[in-house]
Design goal:
heterotrimer, A alpha/beta, B alpha+beta, C alpha/beta, A: 27 helices, B: 4-stranded mixed sheet, 7 helices, binds flavin mononucleotide, binds iron/sulfur cluster, binds FE2/S2 (inorganic) cluster
């Protein structure tokens, strides 16, 4: 829209016509107080805090509902306005408890701030305040009625934002109250958005309340470890006798790809990190067959010695490595380099949740969609998957784009997934018919038993000039190829391939495959890696399934498992691993770790620094927030193991050598992010801080050089902003017979692979839901 | 709509029609709730559930609306709900005294129900009888220019009528 | 059965058919019913609006907005269907006039809806009755049925080729739902929370379509304007205040009742002659001229003509036509308290100043009346009211604030008399003075 010029407090300002005065002012650094106004949610004009004086208008006007107009003259602060706001606050405080020191929101309360600003110190009323008992509405949501100021933010974010509609307003007048959908409790997605958006201490979270005072925490912006969306989450941490304890997750920092959003996992399921049954001492299997704690040196020496012996005796072919979906890309990269150059094997794999190699093969010359692209696309085609359950962040972006920008959503699915409620078109197909559906959309009427719906759907879709196509793991190999081929017919199209965990994409990109090097470079034609890595096996190794078969046949002498639980996931019979020497790196004594000969206590993604890549190819910085004494990052573990085997560490990790420009702060164990800021500055000045071999940045440099697409702007990355992978994956030919081995984890909102069961919050929800039942639809 | 309903065939039929009268079904909500209350006695959970289903909104939505309107109640009232207006015009002509009198006569307070369930008492806001004050409504019937004695007669009449009805039902 | 009271000065215009059995359509037709609708069809939209403007009819719901002008705001072309909505929520304390119209002359409301619909080319009209008026729902529904049967409603009304449907709706107890935008919310099956304006109903109203909302008396007056002609109608009233009005006299009067008098009729005469003066030889203390939300007038302020402009000049408002008369035995603090109790009970709770303001005013006035207040409470009451005024989401806040400010201003002495801690002096007196029962 055209710009208009208007005057606020004597300053001439311009903004697009139709912009709300409150927004226009904020954009120019003029803060107008507001309780009920919240960007992106429907307008209420209920709190009357945003009143301003507009020339030639008799009454004070609410800036939250007034669009700027040409020549408008506005006053936002004057004795009259201050008095109006003061009176409003006085009224609120009339019944609002003034026990801020013990209120969970103390220090983070907008009412407190407003009272401070407009000084409504002494109460005008002698009547005693009406006390009401606090209510627990769900395992995570608590409601303290007298604190509620009825700004209706929670009601709107739950309904308009989440499409859950679990909160309402009941009674009227002074009796008005926020009410949960099940009379005395909530049944919802437990996303906690209502709590985060509450300006006061009325809605508080069971996971955090009364644990600490906000100012006692330091806040570290990092990335959620759960699903493949990679939402930015800010962790509040404080000192604990065994390190740094994570006490809260929220997204006050809205700069992330998730904007306002976090789901229950991103907000609460960090709690696994604080469990007392975390592994904190290395374990080694003793003569009596039992695992017993030993010193770090002993464990590392022992593991390294065993590996070396096996390597010398049987060669790399007898050793297998299984990587993780939740370690950093640096760790994944290092692990495969270690496997290939130190262990001399291509027997490396991970739990695959999407056929990224096939996607990589199909993509060259076409564009991949970042999560931000989905949030701004004119039209979106979603084929397969159920984002509401499996990609909550994506679901939020889609809903928000439809709601605020009128984007058109087209859904093809074999289930009546909830997102159909936002869809312009919904095409219901049979479970096996995804490939067929694409052929149908491509114009082959025979492909689906044609019903009127299908034709309408196809017609509508064909009219779209620009499209983002998001597809689930229903698509593999050739199906991905044909989907991408058909999709490229649309003028301006981008694609996204949905995989499951925080760094599944990174694991794939970093070559945790028996046949592919980082960037999907075939081991048979190692290109740049040949020169960089020197000697390494040139034939594809064993994939995950083959490794266990080999073990059963007694042909796999050693297996290194990093942050994975294949024994449970693939239902491996322990007997099969009888004769295999197993090294496991994990946070917990999982089914796999229980069978190991050496178990190393690993740090979680919240306790280390590095980068992860979400399923959309958005690279993000993870920062060390928590710290559990006794644990080590998988990066350090791999380096130490290699060292113990007698490998040349400088070859493995080019630390301190040329090219290394900054330090993630890991070496300084920073929680405040201080060191990272140093890193940014140092990087900016081409200076070399002290870099240890345990510093993932040492390898990041190499990654950026060698892995196609990963040469993203480093400074922006360090500044905490997501960087979409540069297009530029090498063109690779995949053997048509290649097995994709994709096994989607089908997590729900309340589960998260093996990790999920270690989260008390997720567990408590599932308990409270028996018989199982998920979000209101 | 669904065959199974908690309402009488007449009311169910009326509701089937009601939702068709408006550009949107939901417009039938407030009347539906009032008519349902007339038959069932209050907005019970069962009423909430069926009305929500008939209109195609959530039970929460129905409760949000129900709790807004002062005539809608979630607990049953007496067979005869005596609603005495004490707003300004009635107050000037003895509305409070009438209310106080009913309290004593019926031995119940505001929103109370007599033990036999025959009467309930409610102090209400202006019912639109200001020029004929003091006034009261019993269920939907207006009683105006009230006096204390007139009130007594009225209550007596309702009681006899109520007992008669109960007896006939008993048979 | 509520009935009209008459007095020689009365002008039976809107009440022309009252008590003549006009609830039956045949009787209504004998009393030249539905003639105006036929005229209106001839006139067409522009003609209708021209005549309405000429009549100087001003809304009877309270605000007194010129009706013809309001209708002219509706855009001719609109993407969404247009609607006519009759506001029969009549809940302003002191007001009981619309009830008489529905009870005695339901077809005049229907005919009014027809004319209004013709004026803006609406295909659907709603008549919203407050829930308490349940017996009127039967009367209205029957009347609507009859009109359908006669072909005055439904497809091709009066053979004009025009279609019009009318639905009678009931509320369920909420004063705020009388506010036009809350009324639309209620009719859409929602909580009676007002809407943000602009946009105004004439542009975006019911179901998002252009809508005119008029008070029942306003609508019922329309056919009569076409019956006697706008010029005739305008002549009856005063300048810019055409016609008659149903005044509801209540409180301390010998002959309370609803009277149809010309606009601009002298308030003093209305009280002493029409209403028969104050009973039991008591002295007049105060008059609330237009329903509970209008500022109180002192005896020396009542020698004024009852039209929107003159009462406005006198510092109050004509409002809904509810004239409440108070004699010397009334405790103004108790009266103020009862008034506030009402607004506290009826506030929809949406915005802070109204929700909390009415609640705290009720609490403070209760305490004051009970004798538990100190000096600063009186100023505080005024402070609260003044900080509500003009700051709330809808006019209900003003409706609560304006009378309160007037009570404190004009009767401060009485408020102070309550500070001696002995409770209400009038109640002590009342022991001797039984109320008027
Ligand atoms: C709190 C409040 C209550 C109202 N109640 C009524 C009412 O009961 N009946 C009515 O006709 N207008 C009522 N009004 C006025 C309506 O908002 C609207 O102005 C009126 O119906 C317009 O009709 P008119 O132009 O014919 O007067 C109320 C206004 C407010 C602010
Ligand atoms: S959507 Fe995924 S990434 Fe985002 S918070 Fe939830 S689990 Fe974490
Ligand atoms: S922010 Fe404008 S009224 Fe609340």
């Amino acid at each position: 829209m055209a710009d208009v010029t208007f005057t606020v407090d004597g300053k001439k300002l311009t903004a697009a016509a139709g912009t709300l005065l409150i927004e226009a002012c904020r954009a120019h650094g003029i803060e107008i107080p507001a309780f009920c106004y919240y960007p992106g949610l429907s307008l209420q004009a209920a709190c009357r805090m945003c009143v301003v004086r507009i020339e030639k208008v008799p009454k004070l006007q609410t800036a939250c509902t007034t669009p700027v107009a040409e020549g408008m003259v506005v006053t936002t602060e004057s004795p009259e306005i201050a008095q109006a706001r003061k009176a409003t606050i006085e009224l609120l405080l009339g019944n609002h408890p003034l026990d801020c020191p013990v209120c969970d929101a103390g220090g983070e309360c907008e009412l407190q701030d407003m009272t401070f600003k407009y000084g409504a110190g002494e109460s005008k009323f002698v009547e005693i305040k009406q006390h009401r008992e606090e209510q627990q509405w769900s395992p995570v949501v608590f409601f303290d009625r007298p604190r509620c100021i009825l700004c209706y933010r929670c009601v709107r974010v739950c309904g308009e934002g989440m499409d859950v509609w679990a909160l309402g307003v009941q009674n009227r007048g002074a009796g008005s109250v926020i009410a949960p959908n099940k009379q005395d409790h909530l049944e919802c997605e437990e996303c906690g958005m209502c709590i985060d958006i509450c300006p006061v201490g009325a809605l508080t979270s069971g996971a955090y309340r009364y644990k600490t005072r906000p100012w006692e925490m330091s806040h570290v912006g990092t990335v959620c470890t759960h699903c493949g969306d990679g939402c930015k989450t800010t962790l509040g941490v404080r000192r604990a006798n065994d390190g740094m304890e994570i006490v809260r997750g929220d997204n006050r920092d809205k700069s992330g790809i998730n904007g306002d959003f976090l789901c229950i996992k991103g907000r609460y399921a960090f709690d696994f990190a604080n469990r007392e049954d975390r592994l904190t001492k290395p374990l080694v299997r003793q003569a009596d067959g039992k695992l017993a704690p030993v010193s770090w040196d002993e464990a590392i020496e022992f593991a390294g010695k065993k590996l070396r012996e096996i390597h010398e005796a049987k060669g790399g072919a007898a050793i297998g490595v299984i990587g993780s979906n939740r370690t950093t890309s640096e760790e994944a990269y290092l692990l495969q380099k270690f496997a290939r150059t130190v262990l001399g094997t291509n027997n490396i794999d991970h739990h695959r949740t999407a056929d990224y190699p096939a996607f990589a093969a199909a993509l060259p010359g076409k564009a991949e969609a970042s999560l931000r692209d989905v949030g701004s696309a004119k039209a979106i085609l979603l084929v397969g998957n159920d984002p509401t359950e499996q990609h909550p962040g994506l679901a939020w972006q889609i809903r928000t784009n439809v709601r605020l920008n009128g984007a058109r959503l087209y859904v093809v699915n074999h289930e009546l997934i909830k997102l159909r409620r936002q869809a312009t078109g919904f095409l219901k197909i049979r479970e096996g018919d995804y490939a067929a559906a694409v052929t149908y959309l491509a114009g082959n009427d025979g492909a689906l038993e044609g019903n009127g719906e299908a034709t309408k759907f196809r017609e509508a879709l064909r009219k779209e000039e620009s499209l983002v196509i998001v597809f689930g793991s229903e698509f593999r190999g050739r199906e991905i190829e044909s989907l991408v081929q058909w999709g490229s017919g649309f003028g301006n199209v981008k694609f996204a391939c949905l995989g499951d965990y925080a760094n599944s994409r990174g694991a794939a990109d970093m070559g945790l495959y028996p046949d592919l090097l980082p960037g999907y470079v075939p081991v048979t034609a190692p290109a740049q890696f040949a020169t960089e890595y020197g000697r390494m096996p040139d034939r594809p190794g064993l994939d995950l399934v083959q490794m266990f078969d080999a073990a059963e046949r007694g042909e796999l002498a050693a297996l290194v498992v990093v942050g994975a639980n294949p024994v449970a996931r693939y239902g491996i019979d322990p007997a099969a691993l009888r004769n295999t020497f197993i090294i496991a790196q994990d946070m917990f004594l999982t089914e796999t770790a229980q069978l190991a000969d050496v178990v190393f206590p690993a740090a979680s993604l919240y306790e280390k620094s590095g980068t992860v890549t979400n399923t959309f190819g958005d690279v993000q910085l993870v920062k060390k927030a928590g710290d559990r004494a006794g644990t080590r990052s998988d990066f350090e573990l791999t380096v130490r193991l290699a060292a113990a085997m007698g490998a040349d560490i400088r070859k493995l990790v080019p630390f301190g050598s040329g090219g290394v420009r900054a330090d993630f702060g890991q070496a300084r164990g920073a929680q405040s992010g201080e060191a990272d800021r140093h890193g940014v500055w140092l990087a900016a000045h081409n200076l070399e801080p002290k870099v240890s071999p345990f510093d993932p940045f040492a390898i990041f440099d190499e990654m950026q050089r060698l892995v196609p697409g990963y040469d993203v702007p480093r400074l922006d990355l360090l500044a905490g902003s997501d960087q979409h992978l540069r297009a530029g994956l090498v063109h690779i030919q995949l053997d048509p017979a290649r097995k994709d081995l994709v096994w989607p984890s089908n997590d729900s909102l309340f589960s998260s692979g093996t990790l999920g069961r270690f989260s008390r919050t997720l567990h408590s929800i599932l308990e409270s839901r028996k018989p199982a039942e998920t979000a209101a639809d | 709509m669904s065959a199974k309903t908690i309402f009488s065939p007449e009311l169910a039929a009326r509701f089937d029609k009601l939702v068709t009268l408006y550009p949107v079904k939901r417009s039938a909500l407030v009347p539906m709730l009032l008519y349902a209350q007339d038959e069932v006695g209050c907005i019970s959970d069962a009423v909430v559930a069926e009305v929500a289903e008939r209109i195609g909104i959530s039970e929460l939505d129905v409760r949000n609306v129900t709790s807004y309107y002062s005539m809608l109640r979630t607990k049953p009232a007496g067979k005869y709900n005596v609603q005495v207006c004490t707003n300004i015009s009635c107050m000037l002509r003895g509305g409070n005294e009438i209310l106080e009198h009913c309290r004593r006569r019926l031995g119940i307070g505001n929103k109370g129900v007599t033990a036999d369930g025959m009467f309930s008492l409610e102090e209400v806001e202006c019912i639109g009888a200001c020029s004929w004050a003091p006034a009261a409504q019993v269920n939907y019937a207006f009683h105006e220019n009230l006096t204390v004695d007139g009130m007594d007669k009225m209550l007596a009449e309702y009681r006899t009528r109520g007992l008669a009805e109960d007896r006939s039902k008993g048979k | 059965m509520a009935t009209l009271t008459t007095h020689p000065d009365c002008v039976p215009l809107v009440s022309y058919r009252f008590g003549k059995g006009a609830t039956s359509i045949d009787r209504y037709l004998e009393l030249d019913g539905y003639q105006s609708a036929r005229k209106a069809i001839e006139l067409g939209p522009d003609g209708i609006i021209a005549e309405m403007k000429a009549s100087n009819l001003r809304g009877r719901g309270g605000a007194g907005f010129p009706t013809g002008l309001k209708w002219s705001f509706v855009p001719r072309q609109a993407p969404k269907p247009k609607y006519v909505l009759v506001n029969g929520d009549e809940s302003e304390p002191g007001t009981c006039k619309d009830r008489l119209i529905f009870e005695h002359d339901p077809h005049s409301v229907i005919e009014g809806v027809i004319i209004a619909s013709l004026a803006i080319q609406a295909k659907m009209g709603f008549i919203y009755l407050r829930g308490e008026y349940r017996y009127l729902l039967k009367i209205m529904e029957k009347a609507v049925e009859e009109a359908y049967a006669k072909g005055f409603l439904g497809k091709n009304i009066f053979g004009s080729g025009i279609d019009l449907d009318v639905v009678t709706q009931t509320g369920a107890g909420a004063y705020e739902v009388g506010e036009e935008s809350a009324l639309m919310e209620s009719l859409e099956g929602k909580r009676g929370i007002p809407r943000i304006r602009p946009p105004f109903p004439a542009v975006v109203g019911l179901y998002g379509g252009p809508t005119i909302i008029n008070n029942a008396e306003t609508i019922a007056t329309v056919p009569h304007i076409f019956r006697i002609g706008p010029a005739e109608y305008a002549k009856i009233g005063t300048e810019r205040n055409g016609g008659t009005r149903l005044f509801c006299l209540s409180g301390h009067l010998e002959r309370p009742g609803v009277y149809e008098l010309p606009m601009g009729y002298n308030l003093k005469k209305m009280i002493y002659e029409v209403g028969g003066g104050i009973p039991r030889g008591k002295k007049l203390k105060a008059v609330v001229p237009g329903g509970s939300s209008t500022p109180v007038l002192l005896p020396e302020e009542i020698d004024i003509g009852m039209d929107f402009d003159q009462v406005g000049k006198a510092g109050s408002m004509l409002g809904s036509g509810g004239v409440v008369v108070l004699d010397e035995t009334v405790c103004m603090v108790e009266f103020a308290l009862r008034t506030m109790k009402f607004y506290q009970h009826e506030s929809c709770g949406w915005c802070i100043p109204c929700r909390e303001g009415t609640d705290w005013l009720k609490k403070s006035l209760t305490r004051l009346h009970a004798g538990g207040a100190v000096d600063k409470d009186i100023d505080n009451i005024r402070y609260l009211a003044e900080n509500m005024l003009g700051r709330t989401f809808c006019p209900l806040g003003d409706a609560a604030a304006m009378p309160t400010i007037a009570f404190v201003k004009k009767f401060r002495k009485e408020f102070e008399d309550h500070l001696d801690g002995k409770g209400c002096p009038y109640h002590r007196a009342a022991e001797r003075e039984p109320a008027l029962v």
